[in-house]
C-alpha cells in the first residue's frame, strides 16, 4: 500500500456504468453482445465486469454499479468495452474500446460525474 504522509491510503471506488454510445458493431450476423470490464491498472488481476448485454449493439444501456477497493492514491481505472464471443472454440471476445480514468485528482472529493470517451 502507498502511504500519504504518515498514513496508509485506502479507499472505496464506486463505478456506475450507465451506457456506451456509438460503439463500432463488429458482429456481422446480429447486434453484438456487449460488456464492460473494469480494473485498476496497478492490479489488473482484480477485475469487475458488468453483466453481458445481449444484443446491445452500437448503443448499449448497461445501468450497473460496481465497487472496488483502491490502495494507491495515484490509481487509474481502465474500462474495456468488449463483445462476447459465442464461438469460444474459434474466436475470443473482441475488444471494442478502452477508457482510462485517472482517480487521483478526485480522491477525497466525493462524487465525480463525468462521461469518458472510449477509444478503439
UniProtKB/TrEMBL annotation:
Q: Which InterPro entries match?
A: C2_domain_sf
User: Know the name of this protein?
Assistant: Uncharacterized protein
Query: What lineage does UniProt assign to this protein's organism?
Result: Eukaryota, Viridiplantae, Streptophyta, Embryophyta, Tracheophyta
Organism name: Ilex paraguariensis (yerba mate)
UniProt cross-references to PANTHER family, sorted A to Z? EXPRESSED PROTEIN (PTHR31208), OS01G0953500 PROTEIN (PTHR31208:SF3)
Amino acid at each position: 500500500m502507498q502511504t500519504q504522509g504518515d498514513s496508509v491510503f485506502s479507499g472505496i471506488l464506486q463505478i456506475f456504468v450507465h451506457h456506451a454510445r456509438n460503439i463500432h458493431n463488429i458482429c456481422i450476423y446480429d447486434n453484438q453482445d456487449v460488456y464492460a470490464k473494469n480494473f485498476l491498472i496497478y492490479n489488473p488481476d482484480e477485475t469487475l465486469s458488468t453483466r453481458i448485454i445481449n444484443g446491445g449493439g452500437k448503443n448499449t444501456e448497461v445501468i450497473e454499479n460496481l465497487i472496488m477497493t483502491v490502495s494507491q492514491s495515484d490509481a487509474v481505472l481502465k474500462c474495456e468495452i468488449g463483445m462476447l464471443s459465442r464461438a469460444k472454440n474459434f474466436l475470443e471476445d473482441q475488444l471494442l474500446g478502452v477508457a482510462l480514468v485517472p482517480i487521483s485528482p478526485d480522491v477525497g472529493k466525493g462524487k465525480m460525474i463525468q462521461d469518458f470517451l472510449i477509444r478503439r
